[in-house]
Amino acid sequence: MKLIKWLVISILVIGICAALYLTLFFNINDFKPQIVDAVKKQTGRTLTINQDLSWSFFPSIGINVGAISFSNPDSFQPQHMLEINQAIANVALIPLLSQEIEIEQLSLDGLTVNLVTDTNGKTSFDGLAEHKQTTAMPAETANNQPLALSSLNIGGISITNMQVNIINQQTKTEQHFTLSSFTLGQFSLGQFADMEYEFDAELAEMKLSSAGKGQIKVSDKLDSIHINQFSITNNLKGESLPNKSLQADLLTDVVIALNSKDVTLTISQLTLDNIEANAKVALNYGNTIPVIKFDIEFGDIDLYSLLPKSAADASDEKVASVSKGSDKEPDLSALKQVDLTLNLKAKSIKVNNLLTQNWQMNTIIKQGVIDLKKLSAELYQGNITVSAKVDARKSVPTYQFDKQVTGVQIRPLLIDLAEVDLISGIANFSIKGEGSSLIPSKLKQQLLANGQFEVADGSLYGVNIPQMIRSAQKKIAGDLSAQDAQELKTDFTSLTGSFNLLEGVLNNPDLSMSSPLIRLEGKGTANIISQNIDYKLLTKVVGSLAGQGSEQDTLKGIDIPLSINGSFQDPKFGLDTDALLKGRLDQEKDKLKDSLLKKLGGF
Fold this sequence. Notes:
By secondary structure, the protein is α+β, with helices and mostly antiparallel strands. 17% of the residues lie in helices and 49% in strands. It contains eight helices and 32 strands. The radius of gyration is 39 Å and the shape is elongated. It starts with a helix and ends with a helix.
């Protein structure tokens, strides 16, 4: 007992002596000018320590830094790039003798960071790299070996009232980020420690509130960091958001391997309003350009629900405005600094009324090239497969694509996609194309493409060709008042053709349609810029339109000229009666000639 008593007394005496030495004979404020001068030489900026540095001795040795500030470049406003109201660190003395760091409490309050871009484009960071930089070498032992850290123990870390202000005087915009609090519980190397934060941000058009908690572990060898079960809740509010608010929650694990410079992010749960997903991100930052692999899998996605109602209602007007106003190529130079492999899956994606299912997409972005290896999805009882490439290595990007659509019910697709009720049937469609420029007004003009299509067992809506022919027959027979009130629909067994696209005009030279009653051939153009149609068709009657032997079969075998004009949304179908009458007269002349020949041959 006496030994323990004298040991405690000895420790107290040593502590008191250390305190007396530090306070009476060692004035820490004598180092303030040296610290200020060193910062000036290294950065060219001014470090201001507004208060005297002071010691604290209970319950452990600590330094109270007080208020300090670090300046922005001259003439910048705000004047300070960094300000701290108070910083306190309490360190246990005895463990230091065994190369062990034991911080009982580290507190930082009122940290403000002002990052400014002035009207000339100069930023708060400009000029720092121009001054001489010295790299602190690790302390070495007598055997020239790095000084190893035996252990690190922290009773807790508290950061409060941290403010980051991003001020751009060129664009006259400001963004404000506030870290209300960050706390780290008892921390030791190789052990998980609890952490928690609250964060707020004021962006250009919205406000963000974020809160999270989880666990963090730093390995004994200081070569890895593991963040476990990190739960984050985000709430966005702004006029441009759907319902003026958006909720996003996620649960994630992060592993950082410092030696290999690898980061693995696993998102086991991601909820964005009604959208659910999971993802995995693998990042290696050891190269000049970080290498990223991103795998993400979604449930059901309704993109229309993510748009604000005002934006959704005015989407066509905005697209038209962008198409007219954009006259510069988009800046894709940042793609040269990306090495990304993206694999995406989705149970379904809905855009307005267009529904697609079982999405799979594989894309690589590397050295300024976006390579869509494959995109596949199911839509309207069929499938779509797309591959494409965008080369942004030059000032004017180029692109190419290959698209295949098989077994699709074309009528509901066109109605949901473009509100066009023109044709039904099972469609197969293929197109290959290439072009240059991503300016909206030039996309259609400079696109070169060719393809083919086939529609089986379908109907043309808006026209009843047999009815038009019957009406023409009656008019030829002298019945000008006869009208047939039947559905405006023409059934067919097959509709095929090929096409090419040049300067915004789609040319179809070989349209062919077959049905039990008629055969139709034609050619024409469709302008995808003005959305106008100009088609000339020839129809032949190959079956009885109204019963065997009927007088209405008098046009059988005659070329009946039809036309399609107007717009994509409102096509107009017409019958060239003059040409029809001429064809009918030619037919009668041929019959009369045959009759005369027979009679002459009989003499």
